[in-house]
Design brief:
Length: 298
Amino acid sequence: MLTIFGTIALDTTRTPFHTVERTLGGTATFASISASNYVPTSLLGIVGYDFPAAYLELLKNRLDIRGLTISQTEKTFHYDSSFAYDLAKRTTNKTELNVIANYQSTIPDDYIDSEYVYLANNDPVQNMNILKLFSGPKLVICDTMDFWIINKRDDVIKMIKKVDGIMLNESEAKLLFKENNILKCARLLVSNGPAFAVINKGENGSLLFHNDEFFPIPAYPTEIIKDPTGAGDSFGGAFMGYLSQQEKWDLKTLKNAMIHGNIMGSFAIEDYGVEKLANINTEDIQKRNQKYKEILTF
């Protein structure tokens, strides 16, 4: 079983071309829907009394949501951000933690023996608390973001020491270690315990560091870019979903996981929120995978 813990949010995303308000988002949402294209996926998290019934139904149709708590007294986590014309750099306008501020981590009994656990971008203390509730996962991967690095850096480092893999974007890696060189950042990440680190570089692709080897891979070329929100989380979900199907996690397997991560990230940015992710199928993924491999072969 793959279990994903993180935020389920109502996102407001503003670009020079369009604005969507309180659409379905959140780190666990993107990651779980992405992963569900590879393996049955269980979702852990909390939403508020204002969470739309249509969004709840969408999650129910794609995921095991027995681990989803619905608060009757607080609102859903809300994240408001803006993108400039290049749709590359995101500016946070408002972060309303709401239900996740004091969330007490619990998991259904059926989730305890999950072999694969993905700790999506969330409060590192909550991530570590939830990890203690599992009996002994084979593989644990975590994510983080600048908000937690700035406000809870020590806890982020503690979390990294407890996982098998870490993924974050380039600016976050540099912020975490106050380093300008991305390769040094990768080495510092794995020196804290993880067997591998993945650093996402947006339109410039991704970088894998494993067993003292670097593997850079370009992003999948996408002509339609509407909303970059959730691309990294979609990458993480696909990466974890692919690995959960494999018998070993050597360099070759990790490289293929990166390909699938980039593919799902490329789907996510083609529409607002989870709209595109929720409307693709295995054939769509296979076609893009084949095209991607053709691009990478020379």
